[in-house]
Amino acid sequence: MAHVVIIGGGFAGVWSAAGAALARADADLRITLISPHEHLVLRPRLYEPNPDLAKVALSRILQPIGVEHARASVSAIDTGARAVVAGGAKINYDRLVLAAGSELIRPSRLPGADRLFDIDTLDGALRLTDHLRDREQFSVVVVGAGFVGLEAATELAGSGRVLLVDESPVIGAQLGSGPRAVIEAALDQLGVARRLSTTVTEVGDGYAILSDGSRVEADAVVWSAGMKASALARHISGRLDHLGRVPVDQWLRALPEVFAAGDTAAAAFDTEHTVMQACQHATPMGKVAGYNAAADLLGKPLREFTPGPYVTCLDLGNAGAVFTRDWDRKVMASGSDGKEIKLRINQAIHPPVDNAETILAAADRVYIELPFFPRP
Ligand SMILES: Cc1cc2nc3c(=O)[nH]c(=O)nc-3n(C[C@H](O)[C@H](O)[C@H](O)COP(=O)(O)OP(=O)(O)OC[C@H]3O[C@@H](n4cnc5c(N)ncnc54)[C@H](O)[C@@H]3O)c2cc1C
């Protein structure tokens, strides 16, 4: 029987599995998802005070739709032999979907790097909340004032003192100027101190040294200075983009037998932009890549990836949230209105579970215009 193999159990992998099951319908086709974890981790929720809620059992999604779960980590892909090595065993495929996601870029030569915390993975976020739990007052340094660092800093400011450090001269450099005034006002409101054009050069027991030579109190230093695609991308292509992602065409195909989705895939968003490493893109990409992997084997027409509108919603802790639309990130809602949208998004990203019909129907709806998004 022909075999679709999916590497990764994040948004892209799970939705690839559902997309492949949708295209399979009643045909004979084996679908296997390989991931070392038993959960889909909802990474966008890892800044929340109880990160353990940010997960969904893979079995509740995969079992109803007849997808096998191989609990292992892939160490190699041999595209010539159409096989992957997972947990030491060889698994052959007819079509492969690479959806192994991304990971935090960690500093390689920082003294005290082993003391850093992060909210990149469920284990990382749990370690941070355990470390700070039950402290009356704490001081935290957050390194990186991008999407993740801002959410970490503003959430932690609800219960401790926060210093936000970034080597850029502006807050939220990657977010552009659109939402900056709202973000800065929120940081002021929450008392988050900032040190820009600066980084951390050493981490010690209860302190951090900054590149301006100052020593600051730090019960924890949270590193959130950028993400890079899984190193498996290099097994598929020698032409990776600046985020380490595999180039794919409009059907999300990287090689004749290999598709890629989510944070490992550089798909065109429009003529100027590639997709973001974001679950709002990983989800529809997964639905399309998985569908196409199965459809290609079954002789069905493939689906094109044509992204919906680009939005962002950044949580700002007790100062609400800021919701933006399009690539200039025009602010559409902020404060409590923005927070209302963020809370709804954080629920909406939970995939349906336990019911094949609902899961497959969701896989068929590639782009969801959420009714609570304000229109321009
Ligand atoms: C704190 C935080 C906040 C975020 N906020 C937002 C937000 O507000 N909005 C938004 O759109 N995005 C947000 N993101 C980004 C979003 O989480 C990612 O873009 C999304 O998770 C990408 O999904 P993915 O499936 O491609 O990859 P991942 O979520 O990285 O999943 C990859 C999967 O592959 C598995 N895997 C990795 N290597 C292997 C291997 N060798 N073998 C087998 N399996 C492997 C992993 O275990 C995991 O299951 C946030 C991320 C973080 C960390």
UniProtKB/TrEMBL annotation:
<feature type="domain" description="FAD/NAD(P)-binding">
    <location>
        <begin position="3"/>
        <end position="286"/>
    </location>
</feature>
<keyword id="KW-0285">Flavoprotein</keyword>
<dbReference type="Pfam" id="PF07992">
    <property type="entry name" value="Pyr_redox_2"/>
</dbReference>
<comment type="similarity">
    <text>Belongs to the NADH dehydrogenase family.</text>
</comment>
<dbReference type="InterPro" id="IPR051169">
    <property type="entry name" value="NADH-Q_oxidoreductase"/>
</dbReference>
<keyword id="KW-0560">Oxidoreductase</keyword>
<dbReference type="GO" id="GO:0003955">
    <property type="term" value="F:NAD(P)H dehydrogenase (quinone) activity"/>
</dbReference>
<keyword id="KW-0274">FAD</keyword>
<dbReference type="InterPro" id="IPR036188">
    <property type="entry name" value="FAD/NAD-bd_sf"/>
</dbReference>
<protein>
    <submittedName>
        <fullName>NADH dehydrogenase FAD-containing subunit</fullName>
    </submittedName>
</protein>
<dbReference type="InterPro" id="IPR023753">
    <property type="entry name" value="FAD/NAD-binding_dom"/>
</dbReference>
<dbReference type="GO" id="GO:0019646">
    <property type="term" value="P:aerobic electron transport chain"/>
</dbReference>
